[in-house]
Write a structure and sequence with these properties.
Length: 151
């Protein structure tokens, strides 16, 4: 006779199924990097867009972030800096737009430019944030590395 009260048996069955699907941390990390790191003046800044931040960006710009960033033209610097702020803010308390702008100024003084910011910071951040599949992200990052080696 079937037990009608509670969900103990069903939950136990579900847990048993989930235990079979557990992926080791090493396997998980092979699929997607946990963060992109933007190094400015020797300091690494963790970058990853959370769902909450993606939603805020989409509400601000009234458009999908992928469309905003990957259009045929270079996105406005203010947009890229705002995306960078959204990607750093959850991991570094008090990261304001002004602070990100200051980091960018220092980074430019280190010899980089706006197109570098898109290819070396924004696109890799989107890759680790789930905008692309793991294989697409790997391909994009590989192409960026190859382009960097040529320049």
């Amino acid at each position: 006779m079937e037990k009608l009260e509670g969900l103990d048996e069903e939950l136990e069955q579900e847990e048993a199924k989930q235990e079979n699907n557990i992926v080791s941390m090493e396997e998980f990390q092979k699929k997607r990097k946990p963060f992109h790191y933007w190094t400015v003046k020797g300091t690494d800044h963790q970058m990853k867009l959370t769902t909450k931040m993606i939603t805020k960006l989409e509400n601000k710009y009234h458009m999908n972030i992928t469309n905003l960033i990957t259009s045929n033209d270079l996105p406005p610097l203010s947009v890229m800096l705002t995306v960078a702020q959204a990607a750093i803010a959850p991991w570094e308390h008090g990261m304001s737009y002004e602070k990100v702008s200051g980091l960018y100024d220092v980074w430019v003084d280190e010899g980089y430019g706006q197109t570098d910011f898109l290819s070396r910071v924004i696109i890799p951040t989107m890759a680790v944030s789930g905008f692309f599949t793991a294989s697409q992200a790997e391909l994009i990052l590989k192409e960026i590395e190859e382009a960097d080696m040529l320049s």
